[in-house]
């Protein structure tokens, strides 16, 4: 049975001609992103992105990996004055507001050739880098890092030693541990992020993803799959999503913070509903309860609140200024 390195198999499984992300049902049929999953959370995220746009004095948003345009549609509702442009591997989704522009991309780290010289724009990469395929390595019995290969049925074997460039990345950001420990080599994502940032002449690039730093790298990695709402073994046959968390500290950024901190700072999380409103205005009270519930979901520890927001400023500064983490 043929086997390939994980990065090659992963790319084909998600973005090949019959890849997971090209299927008509779309990823929403298998898992819920924070942009379109829990009720009300997508609107909170849209308000946060719109607020950041205003703080950077920008009026245009380009979303990389826009799925079926769920977040863009909500952004259009939140602020119709924003110029919006979605990019994904599929053609323009039906039902997307006419004011939202759309382009197709090759998928993975590859971006459209004509995406460049972006000026006065906020580029949003929401849950994009976690599905940019990368090399998976494992420490063998002799303590050497070797490339993990995988068959189409998900069976794994160790291949050749990691290349020198990948080894250097690991030495700097994810030092090898004991035999059996795994690393997810983030160099591919570093390059993808750098390429995206290089397309911006003036603006800000905002990434949002689950991630980790050197102090909390998972010994056995984070590679996993999702199918029909359940977490499953990652199998590179196009039947499931394949994802791995992002090494956020290896990216070239201006600042980064957790979602729970940023949403609170931006003031997009509703305060608790006043109970007396239940008597004077029951409808408004129920709406306030729902909005508060969505805010708690979006900022929950060991949940959506653990998302990292990582930002690269290019010729712009945020007002008011923010502290880094």
Automatic annotation (TrEMBL):
Mind telling me which InterPro entries this protein's record contains? Answer: NDUFAF7 (IPR003788), NDUFAF7_sf (IPR038375), SAM-dependent_MTases_sf (IPR029063)
Give the Enzyme Commission number.
Answer: 2.1.1.-
- Which Pfam families does UniProt cross-reference here? Methyltransf_28
Which UniProt keyword terms apply here? Methyltransferase, Transferase
Please indicate which superkingdom the organism of origin belongs to. Bacteria
TM segments? none
Output the Gene Ontology terms for molecular function.
Answer: methyltransferase activity
Example GO biological process term?
A: methylation
Q: What is this protein called?
A: SAM-dependent methyltransferase
